[in-house]
Hints:
The chain is mainly β. It has strands at residues 2-5, 16-21, 33-39, 49-57, 60-68, 78-81, 83-92, 96-97, 103-109, 121-126, 131-135, 137-145, 151-158, 163-170, 172-180, 192-197, 202-207, 212-216, 218-226, 229-237, 243-248. The protein has no helices and 21 strands. Strand 4 (49-57) and strand 5 (60-68) form a beta hairpin.
Amino acid sequence: MEAVLGEDGEPVQQGLTWRVFQPIPGTDGKLPLLASSEGGSTSFDLSPGDYFIHVSFGRAGVTKKLSIPRTGPVEKQRLVLNAGGLVLNAVSGNGVRIVPSELSFKIYQANGESPDFEQQLVLDDVKPNTIVRLNAGTYHIVSDYGDNNAVIRSDIRVETGKLTEAVIQHRAAELTLKLVSEEGGEAIADTAWSILTSGGDVVSETVGAFPRIVLAEGQYTAIARNKNQTYSRDFDVVAGHNADVEVLLK
């Protein structure tokens, strides 16, 4: 057995998982697994009868029914994978590099106008620069930068036999919060922080002398609480402009 990417593709030499199933479900309702193999092209010794052959390449896969006669040769089985690869990355603003540990991606099967992406999740927590093998088609990508509100959605098409490299542009920045007695002064420890949007919604709560957070572009208010005192400051986030946000003791 061999698998190819597209009708005119060469046999895939590695990364395949082959499985052979009986066509009749067992008592658990599942097709019994008879044999498996990993790597590239492979062969199985099977008795005459009917089988289902499944080959997967990452998240891509195809199934074929195979009938083995009692006499005569069995032709080589050639399964066509309509699959490609996808590599995801992201920048902030006009090309500012984002630390890979701050990025993660979710891949959903695109489904027209349906907003219910949770029912179509293909792969969760995909790290940047990772090759993901998928069936050809359109996918809905959700990119999370940090843990707050910096989220970008995009539709990307994967083509058979091709590696698609997509770079998503975030409109966000990384900020360091500091409560100081004077501009440029030392950050004061044991400070509790709340970040509010211009509409008054809380988007982040943290504790520390100089916590780092990621926020989407926009207007915010930083509220610092230290020793039963509360201090605040309004500030703007500009995409790609990582900065310190200092709140002064007054």
